[in-house]
Amino acid sequence: MKTEIKLKIKQSFVGAFKEGCPLIAKEAIINLEDMHEEGTIINLYDVKHHFIAKGYYGRQNKGYGWVLSKDESELIDDSFFEQKIKRAIGQRKAFFNNDQTTAFRVFNGEGDGIGGLTIDYFDGFYVINWYSEGIYKFKEQVVRSLKKVTPIKGIYQKKRFDEQGKYIEENDFVYGEEPDFPLIIKENGVNFAVYLNEGAMVGVFLDQREVRKLIRDHYAKSRTVLNTFSYTGAFSVFAKLGGAVKTTSVDLANRSLSKTEEQFSINAIDPGTQDIIVEDVFKYFKYAVRKKLKFDMVILDPPSFARSKKFTFSAQKDYKDLLKEAIAITALNGIIVASTNCSAFNMNKFKGFIDTAFKEMQKRYKLLEEFTLPEDFKTIEAFKEGNYLKVVFIKKLDD
Ligand code: SAH
After folding, report:
1. 222 CA from centroid of ligand 1 (Å)
2. Among 64, 135, 364, 380, fewest CB within 10 Å belongs to which?
3. Cis ω on the peptide bond leading into residue 151 (within 30° of 0)?
4. Is 301 exposed, middle or buried (0-12, 13-18, 19+ CB in 10 A)?
5. For residue 123, is pLDDT > 90?
6. If we measure between CA atoms, which residue out of 209, 252, 262 comes closest to residue 229?
7. 95 lies in the same domain as 48
8. Domain end: 69, 103, 122, which one?
9. Helix (H, G, I), strand (E, B) or coil at 27
10. Full-model pTM
11. Domain that holds residue 65
């Protein structure tokens, strides 16, 4: 049994916890000096010694830990983890029963009752993401519970808690059998090549499933498509399958070329018929303007923060300018798909960036579609920041 500690919470934060806020912010804690070992169970009390909630100590960029229960007598033991994971899996029955989509999220952190922990499913294989050393201390319980409540071929893990909260490079294999990679999974009938043991990114971002489907089913037909920050070219493949005239994928990383070729090939599209460009997106925009290129659809899916040789990109500071570059090379009545996973601003603020960008370019636009996280990325009302994804489809109305 781990020792538990008492944390005194500042009065101004008590209301939020009572309303269900799961994140234990550093600023909320009075006796920080009592926090030593990550993974310790912490009991939160107000200054009058009334119990508020219990949670665990785990440091990540977001805070110092997560609330696990509002019940003072609840034990954070094997059965606690088993019950949470079982319930999460039960809520995804429809996903498990769908043979056209064989990869999805089975456990989404605080949305499923345990902040700092996510679990993804890839056709029988599971990938556990640990976002702090604190939650990693519960590895045994989590792995044991998972094995108990669902059939498993194998388990991999990603430790995302080095000093900067980044992924720790190591062998990620944890348990069971190892498949031959690439493991081919399906999403709405489309193949994806995934590599569960090659670093932080496995080859697909599962949270964009609905966006990819909509591009394929409703927007790509007869359009020329520019996919920026394209990684494995997932959006390009869906666009091509949806009848795009041609796709152009641009990503800075060398690996993106072979990964994108592979992604097209496993879906029976000759990669030689598509443009796959390894280059800084900002450089490509300049080239496109010089060559007077226009696209009927431009997809923007930058990381929240990135540093390349020439530019530092921060979604919060630079998204508006990124949009302006896109507007300049989007054809009349063309579509811009603007996406961000930056949790530092919300949908309203994001739409504000869009509005300002079009105003500064003196063009009119129309918002067509709006997406946040899909159902398997479960979030809770009391923690809106957890719903980090924002995707907007915009139609450009002036040339
Ligand atoms: N849109 C992708 C995911 C993007 S991940 C998908 O749907 O799967 C972010 C990608 O941006 C990474 O592959 C990274 O290499 C790329 N990237 C970061 N900065 C860049 C830049 N300045 N120019 C081009 N690509 C960049």
Report:
1. 25
2. 364
3. no
4. buried
5. yes
6. 252
7. no
8. 69
9. helix
10. 0.97
11. 4-69
Q: Which two tokens stand for residue 261?
A: 């070729």
Distance CA 332, CA 376 (A): 36
Instruction: Please list the residues that pair with 7 across neighbouring strands.
Output: 44
CA separation for the pair 343, 62 (Å, rounded)? 10
Closest to 341 in 3D by CA, of 289, 304, 293: 304
d(CA 186, CA 103): 7
Instruction: Supply 269's token pair.
Output: 């599209």
Kindly state whether residues 131 and 83 are assigned to the same domain.
yes
Q: Closest ligand 1 atom to the C-alpha of 212?
A: 7
Is 225 in the same domain as 371? yes
CATH number where 107 lies: 3.30.750.80
CA distance linking residue 290 with residue 285, whole number of Å = 9
The C-alpha R_g of the chain, in whole angstroms, comes to 22
Question: Does the beta carbon of 208 lie inside 6 Å of ligand 1?
Answer: yes
Residue nearest to atom 7 of ligand 1 (CA): 234
- Total number of domains in the chain: 3
Whether 303 lines ligand 1, by a CB cut-off of 6 Å, is yes
- CA distances (Å), origin 264, targets 23, 255, 273: 41, 15, 10
Among residues 66, 165, 116, the alpha carbon closest in space to that of 382 is found at 66
In angstroms, rounded to a whole number, what is the distance separating the alpha carbons of residues 392 and 386?
18
Give dist(CA 352, CA 15) in Å, integer: 30
Tokens 């043991």 belong to residue: 197
Q: What is the pLDDT of residue 2?
A: 58
pLDDT at 373: 98
DSSP symbol at 102: -
The answer as to whether 37 is a domain residue is yes
Domain presence at residue 214: yes
CA of 300 to the centre of ligand 1 (A): 9
pLDDT interval class at 310 (50, 70, 90): confident
